[in-house]
Fold this sequence. Notes:
Elements: E1 9-14, H1 16-33, E2 38-45, H2 49-60, E3 68-77, E4 90-93, E5 103-111, H3 115-125, E6 131-139, E7 152-156, E8 162-163, E9 179-182
Parallel strand pairs: 2-3, 2-5, 5-6, 6-7
Antiparallel strand pairs: 1-9, 3-4, 8-9
The protein binds 1-O-pyrophosphono-5-O-phosphono-alpha-D-ribofuranose and 7-hydroxy-pyrazolo[4,3-D]pyrimidine (7HP).
7-hydroxy-pyrazolo[4,3-D]pyrimidine binds next to strand 8.
Amino acid sequence: MQQTLPxxxxxVLVTAEEIADANRRMAEAIARDYAGRSLVLIGxxxxxxxxxxxxxxxxxxxxxGPTDVQLDFIAVxxxxxAHRSSGEVRLTQDTTHAIEGRHVLIVEDIVDNGHTLHxxxxxxxxxQPASLRVAVLLDKPYHRAVDVPIDxxxxxxxDEFVVGYGxxxxxxxxxxxxxxxxxxxxxxA
Length: 189
Ligand code: PRP
Ligand code: 7HP
């Protein structure tokens, strides 16, 4: 059946079902690696709101995974209202709990030029966690400015500006259940 898309959206790139499959695959790998341990997931707001929630629940459905999973959130901003990163990352909200001695998994929606993740790895790594890894739903490797290790990848993102499932353009489109390409006329040249 033909789907009616909101104004500004050209086409769906990744369906809600494909996103759920990617989260399940990441959850299985994470469950294996953290079996019998206590794990803290740190979701990076606002974009990773949905992937953090869905990955956490997918993880709870895998038998034999971590003994317990705690959630925390951090907020950073580097894109402001633009569709290109300023490269300057700002911490806008810190976690609520200390992570010293804890196994920590940063959960991101997308890694593009890599500045955000580079900043977060360095900042959280300085706090002496027992371990620090990264799970990313979308790896967008075409314009990487800094090399950042990613431990769990859901999907490779097409070389497009994508919105939906947490990803925004000027704070719009975050609540779409799929990932979509914007119409080119919506973006500045
Ligand atoms: C987006 C996205 C990632 C970051 C990735 O966040 O959610 O956190 O950009 O970009 P990079 O790899 O090029 O640094 P944004 O700064 O737009 O904030 P938001 O999550 O609140 O939308
Ligand atoms: C950040 C970001 N936000 C939304 N869509 C994209 O394609 C993006 N790349 N980096």
